[in-house]
Amino acid sequence: MLSQLSLPLLAALMALGLVLDLMLGETRRWHPLVGFGRLANWLEARLNLHPESAQAGAKDLLRGLLAWALAVLPLTLATAWLLAQLPWTLALLLHALLLYFCIGLRSLRDHCLPIARALLAGDLARARTLTSYIVSRDTENAEPSDLAKAGVESMLENGNDAVFGTLFWFLMAGGPGALLFRLSNTLDAMWGYRTPRFLLFGRPAARIDDVLNWVPARLTAFSYALLGNWRLARQCWRTQAPAWSSPNAGPVMSAGAGALELQLGGAAIYDGEVEHRPPLGSGAEATARDIVRAWKLVAKTAALWLTAVVLIATILELLHA
């Protein structure tokens, strides 16, 4: 089935998945990723035997790898097998539905733009609460500029994680590719912390996500630069990305900040402690309106990717006509 998905067909299914996402958004009940999160928690509780313990060692790395494999591979392989058994039309529909369930373009808008509206309305308490839903930093005493910065950073980074990484792997392997990436990225978000509990157990999930995200992240950074201040975005990407611990968030966020001509990064409070993060971008401090600008950049990037895929598919069809 996967071998029969030509680029023009993938382009059509990609467009359908994006339209479904923008029209319907996340399902409010029984979202598949919610069930997957429960499975991940169940596996972690049984395989992470030495959380925050001096006994942790190489075996915890192997248990983390086993947990990743048990969480991701059976679902991905079962989906690929099911697609191969279904009639052609139903299989195509399932590919599009898988992309819809895995992508989060509208979710980004629905979670971040209300922060901008709350800030513009002067409702700081609501803006703090809404921001706490999408970031792990402390927001109880955050100033409007801190919340705006957090909203823009989340939009830029999750543009890659929730949208463009998924689209890239959908183009590589259809619905199972999108599913593989989204599940892997979800495990990284759950386990990929440098805390005593997850330092070893969560490392395989973090490294696998790094590998799967390497190409999409750089395509995303390039797209942000192309649609914004190209010169500044490229300069920030080149000089600032290496300072970030994440090999993929660095290029995406530095290029995005430069494209928007904003100064991001810097100090943020996590668990009551101030963390001095490397700078991102250059220019003015973020405001509520910049969250909207960041959303427009992500939306334009999605349109650019779809247009590029359709154009390449059309050219290839003409060449083979």
Please describe the structure with a list of short key phrases separated by commas or semicolons.
Cobalamin_biosynth_CobD/CbiB; mainly alpha; membrane; 3-stranded mixed sheet; transmembrane helix; 72% helix; single chain; 321 residues; cobalamin biosynthesis; transmembrane
Chain-wise SSE layout:
Layout: H1 7-24, H2 32-47, H3 58-85, H4 88-102, H5 105-120, H6 124-132, H7 144-191, H8 203-227, H9 230-240, H10 249-260, E1 262-270, E2 273-281, E3 284-285, H11 288-319
Parallel strand pairs: 1-3
Antiparallel strand pairs: 1-2
Helix pairs in contact: 1-4, 1-7, 1-11, 2-3, 2-7, 3-4, 3-7, 4-7, 5-6, 5-7, 5-11, 6-7, 7-8, 7-10, 7-11, 8-9, 8-10, 8-11, 9-10
Structural write-up:
Helix content is 72%, strand content 6%. The protein is mostly helical and 321 residues long. It has one domain. A three-stranded mixed sheet has the order 2-1-3. β1 and β2 (273-281) form a beta hairpin. α4 (88-102) packs across α7 and α7 crosses α8 (203-227). The protein is globular, with a radius of gyration of 20 Å. The chain starts with 6 loop residues before the first helix and ends with a helix. The model has no long low-confidence stretch (mean pLDDT 92).
